[in-house]
Amino acid sequence: MSQQNVETTKKMYADFAQGDIPAVLGSFDADIVWAEPAGSLIPGEFHGPQGVLENFVMKIPATYGQLGMVTKDFIDGGDQVVVLGEYTLAGKDGQVNAPFAHVWKLKDGKFSRYDDYTDTALIAGTVK
Question: Which residue has the higher pLDDT, 94 or 57?
Answer without folding.
Answer: 57
